[in-house]
Amino acid sequence: MGRQFGKICVFCGSREGARESYVQKARRLGQLLAEQGAGLVYGGGSIGLMGTIADAVLASGGHVVGVIPETLARREIMHSQAQEMLVVDTMHTRKAKMASLADAFIAMPGGYGTFEELFEIITWAQLGIHQKPIGLLNVDGYFDALLTFVDHAIAEGFVHKEHRNFIVSAEEPETLLEALASYKGAPSILKIMELDQT
User: Can you give the CATH number for the domain in which 51 is found?
Assistant: First the structure.
């Protein structure tokens, strides 16, 4: 049996996107988190896919922890029903807090903010700052081009091939959660450097 997660951090868009499937999979992921007893850690918003997944977790009896910068909280996009809402000073503090609270990470379709959050948490894994699973919910192939680019970076010698394993990808929420639960990890860049010197 794979690992159990107390809380999973989900990065996703503050918009719903162009496809109904994005909303549907966000709802399904939220339901599954609640059913499996994994709390949601997310950016605290009430709109877009962020609001969708939080609503789904709450509707299924699950626990939601939002982390939102003060500037966004003042714009009244903060989710009012989350059991915990942490208002922080900056976006940097927000990301660090979400990372410290979570046992695993999932990126859903989103924009620049989602990409930035995803790659920062991958970089932290690369540096050995954490060993937590990182997944992509690749709805309708949304992340296909990104994964192709990562493979290109590996082929061009800028990313170690072992670090491709930091990214777990699946199209369905059920499959992704199963893959994250059985995640085996990858060596940090420091560990690879040590092995290269022996």
Answer: 3.40.50.450
